[in-house]
Structure formats: C-alpha cells, structure tokens
C-alpha cells in the first residue's frame, strides 16, 4: 500500500494536498509526448503523477515518467509550479484533493516507449500546432506556459 492509500485509510474522502510532478518530453523533431489516459477516459495529459514519501520532485518526475512510458529522463528543466483552487479534483471514488504540481521538460530521453495498459490507452508525439482537443484542463495551462516560455528556446538549441 502506498502513501496516499495509507493516508486515505485514515481520513477517508476528506480533501488533502498532494504534491506531484509532470515531464514534457520533446523529441528530436520538436514534438511533445502526450499520454492518452484511461482516467479520465480518453483525455490526453502530460506523463506524471503523485510524489511518494521521501522523494524529491525530480525523483517523482523521473519515476512517474519511467513507470508510465519506460523512458528515462536525462536533465530536467523547470517550467513552473502549479497550485490553487483550479487544481482541486474529485476522484471517481469520491476522494477529494488539491494538487501542487511541478512541471519539467527534457529533450534527453533513453529507452523504448511502452504503453502501461493499467494507466494509459496510448502515447503519441504531437507537433505544437496539431495538439489534440481533449487535453486535461490543468495540463492545458501547463502546456500553454511551456509553449509560451520554453519551446522556442529548445528548438533553437536543437538546431
């Protein structure tokens, strides 16, 4: 049983704060990796998840990326930290929580992309001008920030 499950056993569905991390993976063609999630069904998101006890946000980002994709991240660059009332969620089982999410990006990846069928329907690399419509709303804001403040620098550095 993980940290969140242990906590929920003690407090039930009451609201809690959960820290997590996501990783924007950019391939050699400048495309962005998105995960088509099972929950919410069919929505696209940035790979990532919730921090475990004793982890740094960087450790969380690397672990979650690996668990969900089998890709290993090299250098992680900070995009921003996201929190506030718009990051409140209710899980299908009634658990209520606020997330504090640290977003990173990397162009350094190794490994072969593998879809974990427990969490994902698909993974695809998208051009910024051809992103899917059904992106998880909180990740859409992170994506906007990434594209507005980091993407062009990455593309120039890759040229």
Describe this structure in words.
- The longest helix has 13 residues, at 57-69.
- The chain starts with a helix and ends with a helix.
- By secondary structure, the chain is of the alpha+beta class.
- It has helices spanning 3-11, 57-69, 137-149, 151-158; strands at 16-25, 32-37, 44-45, 48-50, 72-73, 77-82, 88-90, 96-106, 109-110, 120-126.
- It contains four helices and ten strands; from the N terminus they run αββββαββββββαα.
- The relative contact order is 0.24.
- The chain is 27% helix and 33% strand.
TL;DR?
This protein is an alpha+beta fold and 159 residues long. It has four helices and ten strands.
What's the layout of helices and strands?
Elements: H1 3-11, E1 16-25, E2 32-37, E3 44-45, E4 48-50, H2 57-69, E5 72-73, E6 77-82, E7 88-90, E8 96-106, E9 109-110, E10 120-126, H3 137-149, H4 151-158
Task: Tell me the Rg in angstroms.
Answer: 15 Å
Principal-axes geometry comes out as: globular
Beta-strand content: 25-35%
Which stretches are low in confidence, meaning pLDDT under 50 for 5 or more residues running?
none
> How far apart are the termini?
46 Å
Q: Give the SSE order as H and E letters.
A: HEEEEHEEEEEEHH
Largest sheet geometry? 5 strands, mixed
What oligomeric state best describes the polypeptide chains here? single chain
Total strands: 10
Fraction in helix: 25-40%
Query: Residue-averaged pLDDT, rounded?
Result: 94
If helices are DSSP runs of H or I spanning 4 or more residues, what is the number of helices?
4
Q: Helices and strands: which structural class? A: alpha+beta
